[in-house]
User: Which sequence fits this backbone?
């Protein structure tokens, strides 16, 4: 064995990670929650991630640069732009100047606003299902803990 290297019991480490790793748990929960929201949005041909991006576009309304918006969503600019592509091709969003003439921004189109309005009840249904599963106290705790975790990063 080389100096400074310890022998690791792979099975024990994997079991430990599965049981107590915060990243493992958050990613697992994220995938499962996203799957439930995707199912809810399926009738409109939207994915949960697209609903999130449409929400960001609605909130920014062309006044926030793509870079700043991506950062607020915890994404890098290139991933954010790549994920905007399908929404732009569908005519749900459009790129525009950020209002300060410095950068590109995004806003909903008329079609995007209509699709978003159709998606809101489906999103609310998914929210309601998760809230019911967690219970009122669990729901509140979940939001507090996710906000704390996001500030940590």
Assistant:
């Amino acid at each position: 064995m080389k100096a400074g290297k310890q022998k690791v019991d792979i099975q024990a480490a994997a079991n430990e990670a599965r049981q107590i790793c915060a990243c493992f748990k958050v990613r697992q929960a994220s995938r499962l929650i996203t799957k439930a929201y995707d199912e809810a949005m399926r009738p409109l041909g939207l994915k949960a991630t697209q609903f999130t991006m449409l929400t960001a576009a609605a909130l920014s309304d062309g006044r926030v640069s793509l870079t700043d918006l991506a950062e607020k969503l915890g994404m890098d600019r290139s991933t954010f732009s790549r994920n905007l592509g399908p929404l732009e091709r569908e005519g749900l969003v459009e790129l525009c100047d950020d209002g300060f003439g410095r950068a590109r921004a995004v806003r909903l189109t008329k079609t995007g606003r209509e699709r978003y309005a159709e998606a809101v009840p489906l999103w609310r249904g998914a929210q309601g299902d998760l809230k019911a599963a967690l219970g009122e106290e669990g729901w509140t705790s979940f939001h507090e803990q996710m906000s704390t975790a996001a500030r940590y990063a």
